[in-house]
């Protein structure tokens, strides 16, 4: 799912880098280069199972105290807590 | 329909975590399984039976919540295997009830489509319909049912009559079909298939459900404070602090009442029964022994009240979020927080709930350190010693010093747990990446009085049952050891000096003497292996037999005359660490599937206890508390 990352002029941003208050739409899940303990396919599956699919609206609601990690993310109408490390797999626009 | 069915109709409750499966199970069967407002409460399969209004006997399974059938952690594997009929000795469900939180349908609908594809007969239960209606969610039930090709019912698991619809449709369904096909086709979905299912689910929601535009504003408001990086942590620590202060201050009047009652009972026994073995048994063994433990019931209730309220409110998942990185620094998984916090109540459910942790190493680390969390069985020991040796004065004007020491002991437990975890990570699993933390934060719910009351009732009953069984039988043993053999005729010293207890105690004493423990403590620690409170009861009995009438009254007062402050502090340190609970060790054996990890826990905790007591005693003596 690495194609189409740069389209219609928007600079894609990774959820793992987004700051509190950031709102965006999931453009892709790209777990290949993420330094997670999970295998890329496993990480991708889990993210999808928690609602991170292309087109989902997300908003970073809260950040933890150490290194602003983990983050609480609104995904459509639920709130998911996730570490920035894993959130790097979620490409937003 | 014929009401004499030889085979019961088999239901299974499947759904995403926190959708209300266990609440439904309890509503249908009248059971009292644990319900709380965070994902991952149920970690085992639980079976129950009920009769439908149509007279049909239904056997129903409550299962751990899951987002998919992949089975990423031990609890989710149970659900998968039951649904797919892969568990040996388990009947395949005739009908799977897919339970959804109606305010949060996306993820459940994806799961439901996956369930549907297995070919198992399916019914969709739109639970928490009350909350959904209040928020303005409307569902076109007929259209939804038609679209999915399965029956759809609404339910309100926590309200009387909230399952009428569900029961009716179950009856209808059971009447129609014969037995379900046993074969089922399922293989793990590829990510492309997962996406496709989620799209389909989203499309169905768009077509059949209308959602309000705003998210739950109360939750958002509370979270803006509770999840604030600084204020949130401050609140978390404040909650814990108040909890331990409350255990001391609120419980006091009630405890005095109970201990007064036991004293009166003791006096009554002494006054009515002739002096002799029976009087001694009732007064020293039963009343001083078991009574000294029952006194702590109010404290147990207070600690459970706090934990239950936090769980039902929806705070637990937030606490896990706040603590994730802090615990991660000690090599712990963020999901370890909830099991560890429940270990404040008792390590056994705490260790069980580690099943939600997918990674084996993370799970094992959590299991190994869970017994270091200060469980409620330590409360009697701590309280007894603290109230005897620490003055009940106020420091800084408003903090109760006894409560502060209690808080210190809890902190010691937590800190040592984190330290042990860091060591485990450093020595054993250095090479390894931290496992991910992904957790749904549920909307807050007001705790329901009834469920909190039931929760407390169950815990109190368990505590009293233990006092009546384990503790009582240990007490009989201790009383026997401390009373026999009887002193020879013409003996001058106290009778107990001739008893088996004294012989055993004196035999172990040399090993424990460096810690400042006398022989009475040594004997009390042995039955204390069964459960920590037993040690208190054992001390009660031993000193009561030794000291006669006066000693039987107030074990605490006796201790101040028999022990130095250094001994008391040393014993406190011992109980922070010592593995004095047979049931916990048994659960570790079961959950890890090996004697090895049980042995590791036992040995490391003993070593810690010995070293900690040795240091405490010697430092205290050096400061003149010997
Ligand atoms: N208002 C309302 N609350 C409900 C309803 N059903 C369940 N709840 C609450 O929702 C929370 C979760 O309920 P549980 O029954 O523990 O959920 P579960 O599906 O068993 O959760 P897991 O075991 O973690 O998978 C609890 O706080 C319940 O009191 C309902 O119909 N209406
Ligand atoms: Mg449950």
Strand content of chain B: 5-15%
Q: How many domain regions of chain B?
A: 3
Strand order of the largest sheet of chain B: 2-3-1-4-5-7
Q: What is CATH's topology name of chain A?
A: SH3 type barrels
Summed over residues and divided by their number, the pLDDT of chain A gives a mean of: 86
Bound molecules: guanosine-5'-triphosphate, magnesium ion
Distance between the termini of chain B: 80 Å
Terminal Cα span of chain A: 15 Å
In order across it, which strands form the biggest sheet of chain A? 1-6-2-3-4-5
In the CATH classification, which architecture of chain A applies? Roll
Over all CA atoms, what is the radius of gyration of chain B? 28 Å
How much beta of chain A, percentage-wise? 35-45%
Task: Supply the CATH superfamily name of chain A.
Answer: Ferrous iron transport protein A (FeoA)
Total helices of chain B: the number is: 27
- In total, the number of domains of chain A comes to 1
Oligomer: heterodimer
Number of strands of chain B: 11
Kindly identify the CATH topology of the largest domain in chain B. Rossmann fold
Helix content of chain A: 10-25%
| Poorly predicted parts of chain A | 1-9
GO molecular function, one term (chain B): ferrous iron transmembrane transporter activity
Protein name (chain B): Ferrous iron transport protein B
InterPro entries (chain B): Fe2_transport_prot_B_C, FeoB_GTPase, G_FEOB_dom, Gate_dom, GTP-bd, P-loop_NTPase, Small_GTP-bd
Transmembrane segments (chain B): 226-248, 286-310, 330-352, 364-392, 404-428, 463-482, 563-588, 600-625
